[in-house]
Amino acid sequence: MSDLKNDIQRLEASTMTDMVESRLREYLKRKSFVPGDALPKEQELADALGVSRNVVREALSRLRMLGMIESRKKRGMVLTQPDILGSLERVLDPLILGKNTLRDIFELRLVLEMGLADLIYLRKTSEDIAALESIVAQEVNKQQKPFRVEHEIAFHGKLYQMTGNDTYMRFQKMLLPVFEYVLDYEIQVNGQAEVGKVTHHDLVEILRTGDAEDFRRGMKAHLKPHFDRLKA
Amino acid sequence: MSDLKNDIQRLEASTMTDMVESRLREYLKRKSFVPGDALPKEQELADALGVSRNVVREALSRLRMLGMIESRKKRGMVLTQPDILGSLERVLDPLILGKNTLRDIFELRLVLEMGLADLIYLRKTSEDIAALESIVAQEVNKQQKPFRVEHEIAFHGKLYQMTGNDTYMRFQKMLLPVFEYVLDYEIQVNGQAEVGKVTHHDLVEILRTGDAEDFRRGMKAHLKPHFDRLKA
DNA sequence: TTAGTACTTATGTACTACATAATAACAAAT
DNA sequence: ATTTGTTATTATGTAGTACATAAGTACTAA
Question: What is the edge-to-edge ordering of all strands in the sheet holding B69-72?
């Protein structure tokens, strides 16, 4: 058994496209380009870099996917504000991620949940609480499997929305499917876990009468089954 | 002043490359491709999709950047496990992000900090504590501006490392520059804030003698100046 | 079994060509 | 004079051809 592969790192012949991509990125930074600025023409970039327009376009295609540039015919290309989570979304597929990454994401979701307390107490309104109560009111009807997840999404989704942090909310929404995937897998292997002592209803009650620290404690208790899984 | 732009949404003629990218992604999902599987040849894909190899390559270039595929001459292309944070890293540049996103990221970093407690207490070792102490011991020499940030990175970086969650650690490492950027800006506008009542030294002390909840409270106090900024 | 050689092939890169959309400049019309 | 229509221009989007190169395969020789 040769462990040579571990001792010596395989060298990847990076392609022109890779180099052009990083050169372009470095160029934009060095020249302090900001959203709205126009980029040179493709052919000019190709000439300047000494490569074919083809390679330049493959590199630009990547930046375009990231939302860093937009380009229209004749008008040319302009820098844009990228959607920081868009690229993440493309890649968060539980079926193609490794076990370690899946576990990392599972934990990361728990971190996000525990962080809700501090932000929610900065901005919660009485309308928010009312909305939460109406969600919880429908909970009794939805204990069965297909509806449970749907209800989880509604309740926790509302909590994230209350933080007023759009990135935070979208981020959790993207992690959730991976979280549920890991959970399903865990349940298959280690069996169904008990339910947290603190229910959604309890959490809403805390939001009305308690402070941020109470809510954090409540959330921790609510998530206890999940944290217990991590100990194993 | 015409607000027509707000009333009617501009329609984007999506390019062939965009469509091919999503078709490919959908194809990989539908066929349940997993890392290691070989993809059809570029020309075959082009023929099947009825587009030029050029367009296919621009789409593949994107997947290649995301780390979803690798390709070598003659061997063809294989699906790989993507690096979920690699794409995020390319885009997290404070200079090209909008104000809202910057604020969101600032808050998100605080959420990550507050989440440290729960994971650290699952896995901390006495060696970790010792390492932290040695970092804190050097703190007294590094109160000046260029060194303060460096020290912050060392201390908090170690905390993340103690969670054993690589994604978590890398994620925070990527958010940190944006966080510092927002902080610098905030300080210029609203003036220097007071320092948190709980120091790094105190946090280490809590790690030795307290529980997760103590640590969370300590961290909240440590970060209090930052949370206070959010209230304004 | 190893090493060397020739052959094959899919990707990487370059180049040409042209359709198309968007812009600009100008002319016509109300 | 502002609007509408026409024409010319041009940068991007797409197609297609060609070829170098790396990597795999098969075969041969030592």
Answer: B38-39, B76-79, B69-72
Tens-binned pLDDT, residue by residue, of chain A (232 aa): 445 545 555 556 689 999 999 999 999 999 999 999 999 999 999 999 999 999 999 999 999 999 999 998 888 999 999 999 999 999 999 999 999 999 999 999 999 999 999 999 999 999 999 999 999 998 766 566 667 788 889 999 999 999 999 999 999 999 999 999 999 999 999 887 778 899 999 999 999 999 999 999 999 999 999 999 998 7
Q: Which CATH architecture has domain B16-79?
A: Orthogonal Bundle (1.10)
Q: Please state, as a whole number, how many other Cβ atoms lie within 10 Å of the Cβ of residue A83.
A: 16
> Tokens 């989570």 correspond to what residue?
A85
Nucleotide nearest to A43 (CA to C1'): D11
The fold for domain B87-231 equals Four Helix Bundle (Hemerythrin (Met), subunit A) (1.20.120)
CA distance A168 to chain B (A): 6
Question: Does the distance separating the beta carbons of B68 and A104 come in below 8 Å?
Answer: no
Reduced to 3 states, what is the DSSP secondary structure of residue B74? coil
Instruction: Spell out which residues of chain B touch residue A35, defining contact as CB-CB under 8 Å.
Output: 96, 98
B66 contacts A81? CB cut-off 8 A? no
DSSP string, A114-147: HHHHHHHHHH--HHHHHHHHHHHHTGGG--SHHH
Does residue A52 reach within 7 angstroms of strand D, measured from its CB? Answer: no
CA separation for the pair B93, B155 (Å, rounded): 23
- Which sequence spans correspond to the domains of chain A? 4-79, 87-231
Tokens of A167: 């990135």
Tell me the longest C-alpha to C-alpha distance in chain B.
Answer: 67
| B59 CB closer than 7 A to any strand D atom | no
* CATH code for the domain defined by A4-79: 1.10.10.10
